[in-house]
């Protein structure tokens, strides 16, 4: 089961857990209210997994690739890691499925506080278009992930502030509707 918590304000190594003391966990229901969708799948059999096939058909995830993030496999590794960790949003949902290894997705809550979501093998997450977020490896420095898209992939991150985009405005409407 995925684990999530509110982060401390430390600027130390981004790969550390950064838990508040005492720990302040975040439930799947709290994540759902932010528009974050979590699923647990069988990463050992992702190529033939009927659940993944069903999700891809239901959500119209027609495009996918696999990325391995580690020093030996990712060109411009240090630059990419810094880019992934800059707070940004996308105009489309971000869907990631961890096939091996582990890392963290950080998302902003409705009060602009950081929530860290620990992702490991078998975890799939969908971050809604317009949510401010970032990604980092954890202290294992390795993750292999499937990236899924509806239609052709769009890789463009829009660093904060990016509040004028329609995707951000739509996301804020979702948050206000959830609050009522």
From TrEMBL:
GO biological process: L-methionine salvage from methylthioadenosine
Record Gene3D superfamilies: Jelly Rolls
An example Gene Ontology molecular-function term: acireductone dioxygenase [iron(II)-requiring] activity
Primary site of residence: membrane
Cited InterPro entries: ARD, ARD_euk, RmlC-like_jellyroll, RmlC_Cupin_sf
Catalytically driven reaction(s): 1,2-dihydroxy-5-(methylsulfanyl)pent-1-en-3-one + O2 = 4-methylsulfanyl-2-oxobutanoate + formate + 2 H(+)
EC number: 1.13.11.54
Membrane topology term: Peripheral membrane protein
Subcellular localization: Cell membrane; Nucleus
Keywords in alphabetical order: Amino-acid biosynthesis, Cytoplasm, Dioxygenase, Iron, Metal-binding, Methionine biosynthesis, Nickel, Nucleus, Oxidoreductase
Cofactor: Ni(2+); Fe(2+)
Pfam family, one: ARD
Cellular component, GO, one term: nucleus
Name assigned to this protein: acireductone dioxygenase (Fe(2+)-requiring)
